[in-house]
């Protein structure tokens, strides 16, 4: 009971911060103030809230649950690639988005795309796809909230009530405080879960009789693979480095880049970000793995038994029995069960509040969806001009309520684990949308048709993955079902974690095909006006800044290769050749002329 | 406020070399993620409980932070901020 009360007290504090932010705004109904905190966030709040926004239920509950079943490889799959790719994308793309937002007053990424490619309806399509892809991420926040409250209260607060309470609290402070409330709450929450994560680690480790003893016991058991990467193929491991590309393409992160007061605030953020990732993920992954030795905790033991039954009798079990066992073996709440078993009651409550802090990072996504709807649909289609600025903010608030209700209803029905929902749908979709941002910021030759082709591909691809995962039943963990093979090579495989393509996560073909479509379709369609290109590329051939070395250039040989292919029509060859030469002249003005292909 | 004068003059070829080295360093760090040489090793347990492969990836995070520090120190796109401030008044609706 005590831990439950502490968690509810914590929810009250969070709610108060949202109300305080509302008062601080002095009832302003200005769009920039509500949606971007007036572009005024300071360095500490910017770092902490950006990190907190990225670290959701996925980072705390999903990581420890995945490590419980798969071992230390979880850190190498998700944390260490994020430590490189996320700060790098903030450095290369985030700073440029900030500069363009400051210069032209953009509030959402779709506004940037519309202006950059001189389009209206393609922007609306991008909005629709981004909004649909963001929903799974909001849903995992709700799932995390329900799981946490149910585990902390030992089942007294059912999952559906827990999800509803978290949804209501988040909705309330986003509704009132907007971006300022969200940023302050995120800062408070990030500080809390970084501090309590370390304390949890120490308390549970001590309670288990030392982590060294637990590690040695695992090594001496048949589960010793949990302390190595031997059950993961190097190819799959490599493909996980594509997942963090999604971070900068998430609208809530792109929008967050616009809230910094000065661009220099990115400096500290990109340097400290990898260290924050290590500080958060290391304890979660280690505790998730060591939970395999916590057999004196009855609920953990039940999970281990369910996992064993699933592995031993997989072929004789019906689909329903397998689903039931998979749900029982799921490790999403394993961290909370360890706290319940090894920490004193009052401390377990405080630590659970820290976990709840991370789980509730879903606030930024709800606010981002609301911002996008009001700016990219309401204001874009004359709503702002007709009804005024206050009506726009009210519409945003109404949208917050709508999105929360939809996410809640879906969270109650979803059978999959937090890790699977995040990796298979939200991360894959947004990673495949990242070529849009890169092309808009660094490639003069990109066009709205290229953007449309990429966006439609992402929508079709994610729907395809969802259909595949629904139609083909999941095998037990560690096993795989080959669905389509060519010449003995498995092309499409169903694993416990979802679809695998040629041994890779689907995110790899999704990103590569999306980038290819952007390049090929843009090369064949008319560019925006020279005036627009000049605004985005004021330094001649170089981008909104400078082009990253070799990013776009690397793909041109492919197009030139296409142009000399015997079957391609002659006019097509000429168009490609002319485009290639003009591309070289624009993006590499000082090249030695003798190397020019003419 | 008048623009601050740079204390040292960087030659274009030096600048180009610096950028090339930074790109190579970034690629090297990316490749170092794929630690196939530790694939089947759990021992030694660092501090008595951290498997060596996990310790490697924790160190990898520190390496990533160092790389970001290098990028911020030597390739910070300061002109973007200057341009954004200068053209702030040109805002489009």
Describe this structure in words.
- The complex is a heterodimer of chains A (598) and B (93).
- Chain A has 598 residues and is mainly alpha-helical.
- Chain A has two domains: 2-21 and 55-418, Sodium/glucose cotransporter, CATH 1.20.1730.10; 552-598.
- Chain A has helices spanning 2-24, 31-36, 43-54, 57-70, 73-104, 109-117, 121-152, 159-207, 211-220, 234-239, 245-249, 251-257, 265-290, 298-312, 319-329, 334-342, 345-359, 363-379, 383-387, 389-413, 418-442, 448-471, 507-524, 530-536, 556-563, 570-587, and strands spanning 480-486, 489-495, 498-501.
- The longest helix of chain A has 49 residues, at 159-207.
- Mean pLDDT of chain A is 80; it is low at 541-569 and 592-598.
- By secondary structure, chain B is mainly alpha-helical.
- Chain B has helices at 12-32, 52-75, 78-86; strands spanning 45-46, 50-51.
- In chain B, strand 1 and strand 2 (50-51) form a beta hairpin.
- In chain B, helix 1 (12-32) packs antiparallel against helix 2.
- The mean pLDDT of chain B is 84.
- Chains A and B meet through helix 5, helix 9, helix 10 and helix 13 of A and helix 1, strand 2, helix 2 and helix 3 of B.
Could you outline the blueprint of secondary structure elements for this entry?
The complex is a heterodimer of chains A (598) and B (93).
Chain A: H1 2-24, H2 31-36, H3 43-54, H4 57-70, H5 73-104, H6 109-117, H7 121-152, H8 159-207, H9 211-220, H10 234-239, H11 245-249, H12 251-257, H13 265-290, H14 298-312, H15 319-329, H16 334-342, H17 345-359, H18 363-379, H19 383-387, H20 389-413, H21 418-442, H22 448-471, E1 480-486, E2 489-495, E3 498-501, H23 507-524, H24 530-536, H25 556-563, H26 570-587
Antiparallel strand pairs in A: 1-2, 2-3
Helix pairs in contact in A: 1-8, 1-17, 3-8, 3-12, 3-13, 4-5, 4-13, 4-17, 5-13, 6-7, 7-8, 7-17, 7-18, 7-20, 7-21, 7-22, 8-13, 8-16, 8-17, 8-18, 8-20, 12-18, 14-15, 16-17, 18-20, 21-22, 21-23, 22-23, 25-26
Chain B: H1 12-32, E1 45-46, E2 50-51, H2 52-75, H3 78-86
Antiparallel strand pairs in B: 1-2
Helix pairs in contact in B: 1-2
């Amino acid at each position: 009971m005590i831990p439950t009360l502490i968690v509810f007290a914590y929810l009250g504090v969070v709610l108060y911060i949202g109300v305080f932010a509302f008062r601080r705004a002095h009832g302003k109904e200005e769009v920039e103030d509500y949606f971007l905190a007036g572009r005024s966030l300071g360095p500490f709040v910017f770092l902490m809230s950006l990190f907190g926004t990225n670290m959701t239920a996925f980072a705390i509950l999903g990581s420890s649950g995945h490590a419980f079943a798969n071992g230390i490889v979880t850190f190498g799959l998700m944390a260490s690639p994020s430590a490189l790719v996320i700060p790098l994308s903030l450095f290369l793309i985030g700073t440029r988005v900030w500069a363009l937002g400051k210069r032209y007053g953009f509030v959402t990424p779709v506004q940037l795309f519309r202006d950059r490619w001189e389009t209206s309806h393609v922007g609306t399509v991008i909005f629709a796809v981004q909004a649909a892809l963001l929903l799974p991420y909001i849903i995992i926040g709700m799932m995390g909230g329900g799981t946490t409250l149910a585990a902390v209260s030992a089942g007294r607060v059912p999952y559906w009530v827990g999800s509803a309470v978290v949804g209501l609290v988040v909705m309330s402070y986003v509704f009132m405080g907007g971006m300022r409330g969200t940023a302050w709450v995120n800062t408070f929450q990030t500080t809390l879960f970084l501090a309590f994560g370390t304390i949890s680690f120490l308390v549970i480790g001590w309670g288990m009789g030392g982590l060294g003893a637990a590690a040695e016991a695992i090594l001496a058991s048949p589960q010793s693979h949990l302390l190595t990467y031997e059950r993961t193929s190097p190819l799959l491991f490599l493909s996980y480095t594509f997942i963090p590309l999604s971070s900068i393409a998430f609208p809530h992160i792109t929008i967050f880049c616009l809230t910094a007061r000065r661009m220099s605030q990115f400096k500290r953020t990109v340097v400290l970000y990898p260290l924050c990732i290590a500080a958060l993920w290391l304890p979660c992954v280690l505790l998730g793995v060591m939970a395999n030795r916590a057999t004196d905790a009855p609920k953990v033991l039940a999970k281990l038994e369910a996992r064993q039954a699933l592995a031993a009798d997989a072929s004789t079990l019906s689909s329903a029995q397998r689903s039931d066992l998979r749900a029982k073996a799921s490790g999403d709440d394993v961290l909370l069960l360890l706290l319940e078993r090894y920490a004193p009651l009052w401390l377990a409550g405080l630590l659970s509040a820290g976990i709840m802090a991370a789980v509730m990072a879903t606030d930024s996504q709800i606010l981002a969806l609301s911002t996008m709807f009001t700016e990219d649909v309401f204001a874009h289609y004359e709503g702002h001009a007709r009804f005024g600025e206050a009506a726009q903010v009210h519409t945003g608030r109404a949208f917050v309520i709508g999105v929360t209700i939809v996410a809640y209803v879906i969270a109650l029905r979803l059978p999959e684990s937090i890790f699977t929902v995040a990796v298979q749908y939200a991360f894959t979709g947004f990673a495949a949308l990242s070529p849009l941002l890169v092309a808009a910021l660094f490639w003069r030759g990109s066009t709205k048709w290229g953007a449309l082709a990429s966006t439609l591909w992402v929508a079709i691809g994610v729907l395809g993955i969802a259909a595949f995962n629904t139609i083909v039943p999941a095998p037990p963990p560690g096993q795989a079902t080959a669905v389509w093979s060519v010449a003995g090579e498995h092309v499409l495989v169903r694993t416990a974690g979802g679809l695998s393509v040629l041994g890779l996560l689907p995110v790899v073909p999704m990103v590569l095909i999306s980038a290819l479509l952007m390049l090929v379709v843009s090369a064949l369609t008319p560019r925006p006006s020279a005036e627009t290109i000049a605004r985005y590329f004021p330094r001649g051939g170089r981008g909104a800044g400078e082009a990253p070395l070799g990013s776009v250039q690397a793909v041109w040989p492919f197009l030139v290769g296409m142009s000399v292919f015997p079957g391609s029509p002659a006019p097509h060859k000429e168009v490609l050749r002319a485009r290639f030469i003009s591309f070289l002249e624009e993006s590499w003005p000082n090249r030695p002329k003798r190397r020019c292909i003419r | 406020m008048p623009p601050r004068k740079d204390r040292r003059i960087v030659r274009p070829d030096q600048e180009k070399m610096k950028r090339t080295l930074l790109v190579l360093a970034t690629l090297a760090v990316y490749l170092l993620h794929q630690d196939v040489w530790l694939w089947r090793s759990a021992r030694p347990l660092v501090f008595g409980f951290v498997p060596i492969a996990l310790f490697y990836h924790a160190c990898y995070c520190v390496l990533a932070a160092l790389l970001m520090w290098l990028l911020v120190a030597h390739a910070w796109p300061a002109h973007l901020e200057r341009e954004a401030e200068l053209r702030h008044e040109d805002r489009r609706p």
